[in-house]
User: Fold this.
Amino acid sequence: MLDERKIKVLCAVIDSYLREAEPVGSRTISKEYNLGVSSATIRNEMSDLEELGYLSKPHTSAGRIPSDKAYRFYVNNILKENKIQIDIEKKEKIKRVLTRESKELDDLIQNSAKILSAITSYTALALSPQIKKMKLKHIQLVPLDGREILIILVGDSGIVKNTIFRLDQDISPEQVERISNFFNHKLKGLTISDIRKTVTVEVFREFYEYKNLLDSIIPIIINSLEDNDNVEVYLDGVTKIFDFPEYKDMEKAKSFISFIEDKDQLLNVLLNNTLEEGIEITIGEENIYDTIKDCSLITTTYKLGDMIIGKIGVIGPTRMDYLMVISSLKLFSDNLSEILEMLLKR
Amino acid sequence: MLDERKIKVLCAVIDSYLREAEPVGSRTISKEYNLGVSSATIRNEMSDLEELGYLSKPHTSAGRIPSDKAYRFYVNNILKENKIQIDIEKKEKIKRVLTRESKELDDLIQNSAKILSAITSYTALALSPQIKKMKLKHIQLVPLDGREILIILVGDSGIVKNTIFRLDQDISPEQVERISNFFNHKLKGLTISDIRKTVTVEVFREFYEYKNLLDSIIPIIINSLEDNDNVEVYLDGVTKIFDFPEYKDMEKAKSFISFIEDKDQLLNVLLNNTLEEGIEITIGEENIYDTIKDCSLITTTYKLGDMIIGKIGVIGPTRMDYLMVISSLKLFSDNLSEILEMLLKR
DNA sequence: ATTAGCACTCAAAGCCGAGGAGTGCTAACA
DNA sequence: TGTTAGCACTCCTCGGCTTTGAGTGCTAAT
Assistant:
């Protein structure tokens, strides 16, 4: 659909615009990208490309800038796998740093965002490991003073979630312990969806006397595991956005930062698709929120075992160095999964 | 030291500048604040005030703006207690909202910051309750699979802190339980500083066989309680800063936001003095960090029982509506303490 | 001591013209 | 028929210029 030369011209425009952040003129291309044709010819090609929706002009006598469609084409058709190479040395270095600096799971993700932002110069964001994707490693009910029970859930990634629960009936510590042991016995190794199925059927038979109590505790356990509060979004390099000329306008910068600071919106953006494996690229208008319709978002997933449990990525202007960002992200996906594994097996 | 009329002029300048954000001229004052003297007289007074360091001019033919010294004078001598009145109705409303919206301790503080920022239009910041100030309500060691032990610490405010600890020797679940019970018995009700004293002396006598183990666990408990990671800083309304003309300059806005996003710096700022009760005001140059030497910070403390456990406040340009902010903060200090109490006694 | 008056200063805003980058069209060329 | 040189035209940008007006500081009169 696009002939050879149009593609070359398009790539030249994109390449120049990515670097200079200025509309690209026909003369620039004919001089700096030796395509062997004159600026007039380029001009004609560019005119065609504009008609096809790949380029646009800010005003009549300016050069052309790539449209979202152009970036999409570039990403889908030009950035083939072979162009993306990962720097093994760099990867190992990142791994070393991350392993050294991160004691806890949270640190690991936060530090990853930090490094990612540093090496890409874009704002980095990361989704903490999602507990509901994990298997329950341990569950324990601890009677506190009075009628309070502390419910502790330990996921197989080492994530711990506590809830304090207030009873409306008396129950002895020994009974709590029995229930605790029973839960632990029955629920260990299950994921949240398993638990949903299991508890209703089996639990009540053996503990009919505590039906009321169980009726109230079980939803709490499930909620604790499902709750979105469990999902943290880590940010780093928020102010990087100021470095891009497209955000020299105060209002734009303000609304970008407001957006980025809103955890709920960010979660929506990151979780819009249900954690499909691998790199994912959302360009400009493809974003669901208006505020970031001139941003691109590139994310990748990380796993624990064979379960995808989180995401990490960057957000920046559509005029983004896609190749560089993708290469950088590739340094993290595997690394994170491996370090996670290590951190837990330790 | 400042005569009656100088004070009036100074107040007029401050009042006008707080509202208009523009240098104030002598004519403005003689016309809008009827002091009964001509602009020429005001001019002389202002010249004196400049010499005394209360006013300054951005350039020769501009009006005057108040200096930090002026704000300090204003805050110390003009804003007497009697001027600050709290709106009981508003206070109750905030209390209702906070009580309704906040299930957890964290929510409460986060929501408070949100409301505070909304009603003041400045960036709000809040320090989460500090666990090390609290008494230990419960401590429990839970043996997990393998050689892992989960250490759970419950503070009297309901804050729970977990650490997973990996042993380098075998120990049976029963032994863990014995130690757990013993800890619980001995340490319950103590604060961190108490624990430091207690554990070294008493613990080793009864559990000499586990000396190695205890030697490694006790520091972990103490660290967990002391660790600064436990202290969260909540932010809200970061982008409010964009609304002030003094931050129309990109670079300034950028460095402000970078600063605000740096948790460690923020902690330093908030904890510089060791939680002295009541409202505290830091103006411009009084700040320790250069980046915010043209900001003012106003904070107040909140308590649990009679122990000060956290802080909440706002930060904004030195040209800040001190009276309004102080009044707003007064709405929170007591409220927070009361709600906290309720939330825990529930 | 206060004030009116005046000269002086300086930033901000508006205006203008030159410069220049870029386009689109046309006509000539291979 | 595709390519190119040439040229008129557009429109943004930028520097320089002037104007405006708010404000000061000084002086002399009240």
